[in-house]
């Protein structure tokens, strides 16, 4: 059945569409070709324009004075947005780097920036390699069959990011559950409930945990990122409880869930493209390029929203002040104008101008860490992997924001 432009646009507001990647990409290809800036009027959502071409998304990302994150940084139903406004009026609102614009964004981003610079990454490298070895050893212990997504991919990056924060290992399961509930609010397997109130209850649980952490790190500072956040000051004043909790939430959740999706999706890509797996094993020097190709291929962050601060035109479409656009990163990363054979997984793709980390002032703070984690895990896994195949059907998360493969049953032979 042929898809109409309207049907393709509506897919961007349908979490289940992201669990059916061939169908999703069919719709995105149609939009890029026929309606690259397309008005979507989906039930239960405030209308928005879907932006699907790489060049147009770059244009928006470059002009952060015209295109603002506030008040609608990610796609949400009207009921969710209204509940958020009510919570904000009571002083309970998630306000992360994703939600902010300059000058606040620049100042608050600087608090954690040093922890993700090359010098800090080099200091973490041996620890990350140790963790990668631990999780590949764990695969060996599973006896040749496992759900790679749930037994390896979700745990390894969570361990890295929570170690960076300095959280006790006993709290990791709680953080994993909260993260999955936060990003999996549209997925029947992971969500806490169906309502906006249920989703905000997850945030409140995050806030309660991190308020206790802030108090502890202010009373007894330690050498970790949690202490840096707890004791940071802006204009001579410490961050308030909501600001510190918001900072922790974005580091703990975005720093984990996006990477776990790419770990699982990266292995799936190699299973589906055995020629590229063989190529990588023969030439391990290609791994840095392969990691970026995994990131392009998976694109774990599906969208961010921007709102026009003034009347403007984007690719010939007039957009009024106050109207919003959805930046479709999976579409940008398959744009035929930018990528040769965009639907081919190429472990040696170079150049690779993917937008999976965004662009401009909101470029992902943890991009270098994500690349290091992926490189370390596959550098450990590939030399030991004698064979690997699917042992069942992969399943993708139903989401409109962050996600990827949630179940990847595999069968394999691994050298110890």
UniProtKB/TrEMBL annotation:
Gene3D superfamilies: Cytochrome P450 (1.10.630.10). This is Cytochrome P450. The lineage of its organism: Bacteria, Bacillati, Actinomycetota, Actinomycetes, Streptosporangiales. Belongs to the cytochrome P450 family. It holds the Pfam family p450. CDD domains: CYP142-like. InterPro entries: Cyt_P450, Cyt_P450_B, Cyt_P450_CS, Cyt_P450_sf. Keywords: Heme, Iron, Metal-binding, Monooxygenase, Oxidoreductase. Transmembrane segments: none annotated. GO terms for molecular function: cholest-4-en-3-one 26-monooxygenase activity; heme binding; iron ion binding; steroid hydroxylase activity. One of its GO terms (biological process) is cholesterol catabolic process.
């Amino acid at each position: 059945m042929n898809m109409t432009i309207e049907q393709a646009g509506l897919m961007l507001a349908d979490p289940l569409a992201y669990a059916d990647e061939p169908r999703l990409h069919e719709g995105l290809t149609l939009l890029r070709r026929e309606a690259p800036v397309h008005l979507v009027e989906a039930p239960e959502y405030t209308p928005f324009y879907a932006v699907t071409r790489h060049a147009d998304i770059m244009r928006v990302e470059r002009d952060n004075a015209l295109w603002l994150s506030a008040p609608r940084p990610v796609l949400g139903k009207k009921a969710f947005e209204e509940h958020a406004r009510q919570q904000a009026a009571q002083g309970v609102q998630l306000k992360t780097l994703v939600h902010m614009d300059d000058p606040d964004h620049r100042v608050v981003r600087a608090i954690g920036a040093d922890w993700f610079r090359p010098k800090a990454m080099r200091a973490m490298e041996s620890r990350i390699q140790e963790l990668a070895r631990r999780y590949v050893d764990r695969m060996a212990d599973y006896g040749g069959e496992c759900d790679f997504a749930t037994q390896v991919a979700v745990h390894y990056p969570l361990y890295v990011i929570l170690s960076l924060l300095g959280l006790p290992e006993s709290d990791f399961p709680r953080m994993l559950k909260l993260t999955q509930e936060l990003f999996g609010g549209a997925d029947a397997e992971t969500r806490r409930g169906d309502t906006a109130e249920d989703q905000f209850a997850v945030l409140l649980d995050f806030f309660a945990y991190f308020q206790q952490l802030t108090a502890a790190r202010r009373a007894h500072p330690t050498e970790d990122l949690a202490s840096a956040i707890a004791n940071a000051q802006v204009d001579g004043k410490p961050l308030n409880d909501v600001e510190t909790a918001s900072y922790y939430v974005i580091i703990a959740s975005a720093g984990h869930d996006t990477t776990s999706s790419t770990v699982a999706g990266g292995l799936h890509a190699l299973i589906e493209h055995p020629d590229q797996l063989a190529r990588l094993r023969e030439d391990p020097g290609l791994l840095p390029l392969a990691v970026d190709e995994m990131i392009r291929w998976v694109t774990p962050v599906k969208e961010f929203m921007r709102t026009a601060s003034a009347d403007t035109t984007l690719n010939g479409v007039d957009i009024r002040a106050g109207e919003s656009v959805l930046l479709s990163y999976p579409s940008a990363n398959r744009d035929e104008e930018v990528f040769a054979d965009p639907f081919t997984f190429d472990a040696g793709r170079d150049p690779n101008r993917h937008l999976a980390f965004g662009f401009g002032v909101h470029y992902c703070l943890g991009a270098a860490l994500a690349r290091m984690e992926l490189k370390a895990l596959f550098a450990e896994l590939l030399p030991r992997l004698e064979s690997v195949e699917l042992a069942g059907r992969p399943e993708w998360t139903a989401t409109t924001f962050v996600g990827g493969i949630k179940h990847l049953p595999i069968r394999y032979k691994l050298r110890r």
